[in-house]
Design a protein that fits this description.
The protein is α+β, with helices and mostly antiparallel strands and 163 residues long. Helices cover 36% and strands 23% of the residues. A hairpin with a 5-residue loop joins strand 5 (109-116) and strand 6 (122-130). Helix 1 (3-21) runs antiparallel to helix 2 and helix 1 runs parallel beside helix 4 (138-153).
Length: 163
Amino acid sequence: MNKEQKIEKYEEAAFEIDSLLANESDMILKMASINSILKNKFEYYFWVGFYIVNNNSLIIGPYQGTLGCLYINYERGVCGRAARTKVTQIVEDVHSDSEHIACDSQSNSEIVVPVFDPSGRLIAVFDVDSTEFAAFDETDKLYLESILNKHFQENNLTTNWKW
Ligand code: SME
């Protein structure tokens, strides 16, 4: 997929996500919907999902794809590095990244974007894996950061569930 095609797809995805979530605030609802729209939009997305911050560690949240690791602590994984540094991580070849955790050996590259709440606290990391090498670049980073900022940091966010 060339850069123009990628941009066009992300513009479509951002529009669909914005329309769907305009009046929504629930964290899990947003995570599940963003996963579905993005996973179905991009053929190079193999695994897409959120790891949610819990007690200075990460626990699996909504995702689409093969079975993910249940827990990742901040000292491990590209997800842990994104949580620790609060900076988006792009890995062109996961096999050459010593911190990478292989939940599924089919993954060859990934991007992990930190997700913040309206007060600027880290609430999750968003992880996308691809079976292609070097699938993710600055275009993915730009659009994913923008989508996630808009729907978690800048808009209403609720996490309280009543049983
Ligand atoms: N890629 C991650 C592990 C999670 S899975 O790939 C679903 C990492 O190294 O942090």
